[in-house]
Amino acid sequence: xxxxxxxxxxxxxxxxxxxxxxxxxxxxxxxxxxxxxxxxxxxxxxxxxxxxxxxxxxxxxxxxxxxxxxxxxxxxxxxxxxxxxxxxxxxxxxxxxxxxxxxxxxxxxxxxxxxxxxxxxxxxxxxxxxxxxxxxxxxxxxxxxxxxxxxxxxxxxxxxxxxxxxxxxxxxxxxxxxxxxxxxxxxxxxxxxxxxxxxxxxxxxxxxxxxxxxxxxxxxxxxxxxxxxxxxxxxxxxxxxxxxxxxxxxxxxxxxxx
Length: 258
Hints:
Layout: H1 5-11, E1 16-21, H2 26-34, E2 39-43, H3 51-63, E3 67-71, H4 77-86, E4 90-93, H5 99-109, H6 132-142, E5 144-149, H7 152-161, E6 170-172, H8 174-180, H9 190-205, E7 210-213, H10 217-225, E8 230-235, H11 236-254
Family: Belongs to the HpcH/HpaI aldolase family.
GO molecular function: aldehyde-lyase activity; metal ion binding
Organism: Paenibacillus silvae
């Protein structure tokens, strides 16, 4: 099995940068890799991406030397099994509010003795080229479990959620968190920021790395001062849209056009 370089970098407290990938085309992954990101989170929650496309995106990530994670749509045995058998090196679990969700994900994502993932010698196991017992042990070392905390309940339950030993890092979800606090999309609202600080404090107490969905340079600087090293810089769609819009506006302004 491929070595999970993201896991190694996080353990060494290297700064790492990732993007959500919603456009199901391998060339997007290639561009992200050439831009020298560290990881991608292929999104199955907010997209209609097929499992065949997931496998192609993961293959592109491998070629681009990116760690491929997949945000699943729900904690469910078959979906977790399929994305891992496609070659994902970790799963991101949206809307985690209970320890039970993490326990169930671990049960489906890890082999014995950590879980009961169904045995298969597909592409991550190099199609049976090496002993399956060796692959099982290696897979359990490389797979990452990443809960997203996106609600008031999730923040309140975070000490219990982050107590699970297989949690690799925790990813905040300030957008949905703002909605659960009654201030939709006001991610800078004091109540939202207080909740994020509470989650970060809990992560530190549990010795779990914290990842932020960074919303600007100043935002990154704030979290860097809090010793955060994992940054998700939005997704491919809004990154591309803003670049397209900025380029057009720059040329319009340079030409004196309104």
